[in-house]
Amino acid sequence: MSKGEAPPPQKADGLEVNEVADGYVIYDNDREQVHYLNHTAALVLEYCNGEHTPDRIAELLQLAYDLKDPPLEEVTECLSNLRSQGLIS
Amino acid sequence: MPEQSAQPRLDKLSHRLAFQILACGFEIRTDSDELAESLTYLVQQAEQDYPVRERHRFAVLRDEGRYVIVENGAETGFELASAAAFDTLFKRVHVIAFEALPDHLRLHAASGFLGGRFFVLAGEKYAGKSTLALSLLQAGVDMVGDELVMLNREEAVSFPRKMYVREDSLELVPAFREVARGLPFVSNAVEPRMVAFDPLDVGRPWRIRPAPIGAIVFLDAVHSGRSRLVPCGKLDMVKRIMTQCTPPISGAPGWVGVLTSAVDRADTFTLELGDLDSAVVDLRRGLA
């Protein structure tokens, strides 16, 4: 990571993650909020381990879904949503 | 009224009503004919495969125009009218029954058994749960409740309560209209009369037992046209059904997980509820 670059996203603490057939239901105990993530968003969240950069997450998604290009724009938007919901830092 | 003056009178109370609500056994005694009559709205005789762990005794004594309420031998207050005493008992009994299952979340849903499989019908208020429950009962389905299902990690069980149905809704289930005329009801100036109905009233069994939830149906009221039962994604169902849940009163964590895994294990549908006959046909076919 170069100077001034944001640290890789990391899943927030205190989340109760529950898996269903088509996504995640996440309960944020601290904020008493429930979040619903589809498969793709759930996968992005799983990649937010404090090590993967957004570029790397897009590459991993490309591999996972056998895409032609890394979906960087979509990943960036998803990360922004997850961050605004307090699910990643 | 001092407790010692009430106590000798308790044995002479002419009415005694005994019933079970899951883990609680209740006994209510009173010397008021009017109150005893109105309590038939509350008291049910569902067969319950559930161990009684605690017993509660109430007495309501008339004393100089007041209705003195005694709970487990201790005077807890008084009301000035039979209707007010009924309200107090109704609320207190339910609070006690809920407190006896502190780790269960409450799902606002009708429930029944079809082919031995437990299913629930959830939906917003006025979505038609009770009317549909009566229609299913009329069609021979073993409906066990129209209001609440108690749910924890181990079990789901219908909360034993009579089905409280708006009198005008009974017009939609003609076979039960006549029966309903003789049943307990409550009424007030602004809302239609609510009739207390249960399967035993129409000669059907009423057996409540814990069981895993086999199917969850969320009702979307359409009010006309043919009803349509459509498979529903798990995530969407959790989102919908979450709005119909009350968390456990113990505040125990993990209740979202309890709900989520129940949804994940069940078959999930939405029912666009138009006419009742087609709804019954679709549910019988889809949930069997």
CATH topology of the largest domain in chain B: Rossmann fold
Assembly category:
heterodimer
Q: Give the largest chain-chain interface (CB within 8 Å).
A: A-B, 13 and 14 residues
Average pLDDT rating of chain B: 91
Structural overview:
The complex is a heterodimer of chains A (89) and B (288). Chain A contains 3 helices and 3 strands, in the order βββααα. Chain A is α+β, with helices and mostly antiparallel strands. Chain A has one domain. Chain B has 288 residues and is α+β, with helices and mostly antiparallel strands. Chain B folds into 2 domains: 3-99, no CATH class; 105-287, Rossmann fold (3-Layer(aba) Sandwich), CATH 3.40.50. In chain B, strands 7, 8, 9, 10, 11, 16, 17, 18 and 19 form a 9-stranded mixed sheet that branches. In chain B, strands 1-2-4-5-6 form a 5-stranded mixed sheet, sandwiched between helices. In chain B, a hairpin with a 2-residue loop joins β7 (105-114) and β8. The model of chain B has no long low-confidence stretch (mean pLDDT 91).
